[in-house]
Structure formats: C-alpha cells, structure tokens
Task: structure prediction
Amino acid sequence: MREHRLRIGVSGIRGVVGDFLTPSLAANFAQAFGTYVGGGRVVVGRDTRASGPMIQHAVCCGLLASGCEVVDVGILPTPTIQVYVDEIGARGGIAVTASHNPPEYNALKLFNRDGLFFNHYERSELIDLYHQSDFRHARNNEIRPMEREYELPVVEHFKRVLRHIDVDAIRRRRFRVALDGVNGAGSLVSVRFLQDVLGCELHAISVDPSKPFPREAEPRPEVLTEIAALVRDRHCDIGFAQDPDGDRLAIVDNKGRVIDNDDVLALAVDAILARLPGDVVVNLTTSAVIDDLAAIHHRRVYRTPVGEANVVQRMRMVGAVIGGEGSNGGIIFPAVHYCRDSYTGMAFLLDRLLATSKTTAELAGALPQYSRRMGKVAFEHGRLGQVMQSLERTLSAPSIDRSDGLKLLWPDKWVHVRASNTEPLVRIAVEAREDTTADQLYQQVRELL
Amino acid sequence: MAERSLRISQVGLRGVVGQGLTASHVLDFAAAFGTLIGPGSAVVIGRDPRSSGFMIRQGVIASLIACGHRVIDLGLVSTPVIQHEIRRLGAQGGISIGASHNAAEWNALKFFGPNGTYLSTAEASELLDIYHLKKFSFVPHTGLGSLCEDNGALDAYLDQLAAAYDFEALRQFRVVVDCTNGTSSLILRRMNQRFGFSFILINERIEGDRFAHEPITNQRTVGLQLAPLITPLNADAGFLFDVDSDRLALATERGEAVSEEMILPLLADHLLPQGPGKLVITNLSTTALLEEVASWHGGTVVRVPVGRAAAIDALATYRPDEIAVAGEGTGAAMMPRFRFIYDGIASMLAILTMMRERGRKISEILAGYPVYEMRKGQVPLESPRVPDLLMALENEYSDGKINTTDGLRVDWADRWFHVRVSQTEPVVRVICEQRGRVPKTLFGALMDRVRRMD
Result:
C-alpha cells in the first residue's frame, strides 16, 4: 500500500515533517487561507509536537503575507483556539496540529469566522484557491506586527464551560481524578482546569508540553494502561485521557477500565438531556445507545455522514442541544461552542457523578449494553461500488441508509461500511446486542469485502 | 517597474514586497541558505524596521528551523551588528532582513558566512543553484532547530567600537544625526545613554512604512533636513544614515551638504598614514580624488567592477594588513579593523577621530582637497546594442586609458568616464568626472550617444 506521507486535499494539508510537509507548503496553504478569509484577524495556535514552532512560523509568514493580522495564542487545545476565534470575532483560525496522528506528522486545522471547521464547500474553495496560487499579496504598509495572547483564550474557554455546571459543589466534593495529558496541548490547561478550577485531587501523568508523546497519540483503550493503573492505585473516581490537541476525551472508570468511546459520548448525552431540552445529532457510525437514551428523554436523534463538520452543520440546522461522534471520542456541546471539546466532557462527567452520587463504573454499567466491532480493509481501486452492492444484496437488511457509504440496519444490529476520507481503506463498524451476533456479522462483512 | 521588481542575484534576494518579492521566495531562499551552511549550525538573524520584516522574519525562521539550525534572533538591529554578533558567537552564518537604502516598500535578504563576512562569489553561486534546484536539506521532526532571542548584541557591538575608537575624546563633538527612521537611532541613543555622547537625533522614530525621506545617503537627502539644522544647533558635523546604517552621508559645521563621494577619500586620507595598509579598494565608478589622496600617502587604489560581490572577492585576495580602506561612492565603507563589515557608525567615528587628531573642522579638512566635479546620468535599457556602443566608444576615445572589466571606463590625466549596464535596474549608467571643472561637454556627448545607441 502507498504510504501517505503528504496529503493536500479537502481536509486541508497533512504530512510527515521533513521532506514531505515543508515550511513552504505550510506557508502557501496559510496564504491561501488568508486570501480566502480576506485579511483581518486570524488566531494561530498549536499543539506540542516538535515540528509545531517550525510550522507555526511558516503559517504566520503566509498569513502576514496575505495581509492578515495574526493573533498568536501559543500552545493551546484546539477547542480553546476555536472558542477564541469566536470570542474576538476573528476572520478565522488555524491550529497547527496533526491531532491524534503520530509525532512525525503535522497538519493544519482550519476554522472559519465562527471558529467552526471549514465545511465541505469552504474547504473545496480553499483548495482551488491554493492550487491556482491566486494569493493576496500584502504590500509593506498592509503588514502588521503579530499580537500575542496566551492567557485570555483559556480564561474564556473555562468561563464558557463552567457556566453549565455547579462549580462550587464540584470543588466541595474534591474528586480524586487521574489525568493523562499525552504531553499535549492540554497538559498545562487541563491541570489548571481540574486542579485549580474544579478543586480536584489530581494525579497527573504526561503533562509536560516540552516532552514527546509518551504513548500513541490516539487515546485508544489499548494504549491507556498507565492511566488505568494510576486510577486503580490511587483509588480515583475517574481518569481522563486526551489526545495531543485536546479535542478528544477518553475516560477510565473508577475500576480502571477504559470506557468505550461510544459510551463516553452516551454518558455526556445522558447528562445533558437530563438537564436541557433539545435533540441529538450523531454520525452514522455512532452507537444505538444514543437512540435508547434519547428515547428515554423523548428526544430525536439525527444521523449525519462521518466528520465533525457534518455533525456540526446538522446540529446548527436542527438546533440540537448535544452531538458528537462516538467512534472518536468527540463531544460537541453548542452552549460552549460547536467543537469537539474534552473540557466540556470532563466538566459534565464530574457534574454527573456529583448529581447522581454514583461511581463512574455504575454510570457506565447502567447504559444499555452493546457489543461493537470495528475494522478496516484495503480495497481495489474501482471495485468499491460492486462490493457495496453485493453486500447490500447478500445481507438484505430491512432498513438501509446510503448517506455515507452503506449502513444496513436490523432491529438488534447494524453494520456501517464506508470508504475512508483519508486512506484507501474501507472502514467497517458493527454493533449488536449480543457478542456472538456482532462477531458473526463482522466476519460475514469482512469475508464479503 | 514594481511589477518586475524581484532581483535574485549573487548579493541575495531583493524586491518590492507583495509585488515581486513574496513569502515563497523568502522561504525558499532561506531554505537554500540553510542547506548551504550544512547541518546543525547557529544562524544569527535581524531585521530593519520595515513592516514587511515581520512577515519575512517568520519565513526565515521557519526555513532555518526546518533545516535543523539554531536561530539566534537579534530583533531590530543594523546589519553591522548582525555581522559582529556572528563573529562574537562563532555562528556559522547570518541573514539580515532589510532593504537598506531602498524605499519602504522594498525588502531584501543579505546572507553572511562564518565571521560575519559576505558570501564569496563561489558561495553565492552555490546558494543560487540550491535555490533554483529547490533540493533543500530539511530534517525529520526529531532534528528540527530552535529559536532563541539575543538582546545583548547591541552592547557587545558597542564594546567593539569602544575598543577601536577613543569614545572619551569623541563624545566632546556636537553631532546632529538624521537616522532616516532606521536602526542607527537605536545605536546612537544607546551611545548617548551608555557612553555620554550627545548625538542630537532627527527622524529617530523607528518607522515601518513612512520614512521621513528617501533612505538614500547622498548630498540631496543631507540637504533636506539635516544640513539646515547644523548652524542653528551649533554642531561640529551632521551625519545621515540609511535604514540599516551601513551607509552614511555628511554635512559640514557650516551647514553644507557634502557629496557622498567624499566619504571614501576622507577615510583614505585618515587611514592611509596610520598604516600598514596601503591599498584602497573601490569600484570603477568612484571619484578619482581617491588616486590623488592615495598618492599623498604612498597608497594605491585598486578598482574592481561595481557591486558588492566584486568588492568582497577583491578584499579576500589581500591580507588584512595590506588594506587601508574599502568602499563605494555611495557612502558605504569598511575598515581593516572590522574586516568585511560595511558600517556607517564606524565610518562616522573614524571621521570624527580624524577631525580630533587634526584639530580641524570638517569643512577645513574638505577644503584641503582639490575639487573634482562629477556628473551621473542614466538611460533606460531598451536596446541589445550596448556592446556595440561600448566598442564604438572604445575606438573613439582610444587616446585615453581603456578599462573594460565592467562596461567601459576611459581615463585621462584630469578626467574619466564610465559607461555600464546596471546590475540592479534595467538602465545604462553614465558617470563622468573632471578635476577642477564640470565635464559638461564630455558628459553631454556620452549621454547623447547612449540615448541614440549608435
């Protein structure tokens, strides 16, 4: 299989730093972005990977060259950057982060004036502009010195989150909390949030932003053994693990078990629906546990194609109260901002523990239980349509959704098969009430592919 | 003109920002330099006050870090300070971001090697090759470079100057300086504060876009604001610097604006008798007064083609102790003490030292020189027939001494002319000089010939 060391496409620009993702590429892309947003203030921040300063300098160069006023916010979680774009009415924002990708990668996350991810339309316009090299070139008198603001974004982000929970009560409860910051952008911000603001007794690991990532960047259950052990040893109420740019959240229960990503979203959804009116938006690959919870609260669930921009767009259309993507640990709570935000997740989980007087394990255990299988297979170019059709014929499900790949639904199980946006792979997600049903369906689909 | 302002040459990269010089050029050129100097080097950078410097600085840092270098940023400083700091820190190179005497909308990158010297022609050619091939030595994420700031460069530079010049004696002079809103104001303010000088500064506010006047060091700009202030302020002299303070121009205590051509003869007259260097290195377009001054002190003038590259190459072929001074008619000069550093501040201090040692006013020193009258003209380059023209002129003026190393220069006992194609602009330059009187007829004839191209 071809190694995707550099990708320039509708999802922006991402690649291995060195011979692939060069300063020149990053600067050109930023200049295209600056041209697209038409000058004005642009917020720029980054995560902690080693190539961050280099790429950020290149991005600032491109933005200044396009006549933008750059507001440098330094090392910050992606959601904090997004909130700040919105807060100061900037024209846009760029986060220099490859999110959960390995340390040799870097990438640019692009935000519009509302601090939202570029939608598909905006992204394709930007990429056309990039390819045409039709950039705005500022003259000497249009270039401004950069501003630097490291503190206000954090204050504002906290303020927006804390508005929705009982801070004093949480402080009084003095939760014992474990944290794995993966030495990422959240390292310092999360310690401050949990320890200083929420008054937790904090047991933190990997919260040194100057050090490399100590584990795989994506907070998958298999790589969270250290924090799981920490939770058990220190008898913590809960453990939080972030990805390098602090948008994703993984949770370890008080028994040291990593809670499934779909169940993390479910806990957040349950917490919100218990308190606020409104519907729920999740992507097609998210668990049916969301439907069960929504039914209990008499709410609707809307399903969208995979991708944060898709979920956010539908949330805004239907005025949803909560949303997210179960498979990747993203919780989107619009009252804070339309972004995946691990801080909203942490705050609501602690608030929920307090409100219910239950343990994390009890809360997770009380959720409707499903068995899930996920996997990916490489596919031969041009064969995708045939494969999908034969899958549909062979499995003959009572309900079919074709809005993003193929999703086949039965009363007690479903399977979602779609081509990845980032790799030449088909992703398979299966869920069922019973383990054996899930195994069976998953095996069947794999064989057919 | 601005549409085609980009100049990529041996000297580096120069152009009108946004209309010729873009972020891409900056990133690629800095990456080429980062590749040229070899892995893991320390590189000193600094900028002049132009607003576009903010953008260019980001690009330069990005590319140097991407090549694995340690970047030492001096911030807003003059080019000579960057050169001194490269030497002091033992860095492997440096980049000066600034367009010196060009208008505000221009910017440029100047490159320096170890010891703060300009790149040789060979090195500069290699830099250009790397730039054009775009094969840069970017390192993987584990080997990326770093950025640090260095605020001590100015004082370290002043320590160097204090060791070379008698500050105690020189600070008695009352001197007015036109800083052209550039970096010289930072240096001179610090000299006032730290060493008790009493420089009176005008246009001392650092400006990113609006310079009080064109940042050129010549008789005309000196005459604008500086010269009229000298007598009312009862000053001993007036000096004017370009934005990055490597060039200077002069006004006398009587408020006369002096031709920029006089800087080098003054320095030669001061430095030749101090020995041991007996050589004055300059280009073919600089005043013939130099030869006369040199002959008083047993010195020799070495003339090379116009342009910094030729001067640097020439300098490199002599031992430091053979040279008295090197420079151009533009007011840029370097002294053996600070080899390979064009430094307006040091030149000013040398001229003040000369005034003190001779116990004479600057106007009196200048009055001691014979008068040479120079005329300069330029004609747009619109014809490919310049070589034919030069050959025709060579035949016509064959009674003079012919020099064809850069265009055509013809010398007679009391006058000379130089016709050449500019390296920086699409023009043909004509320079004519005569001892004692204006070379009106010769200049008129030459301009006419160049305009007609026959």
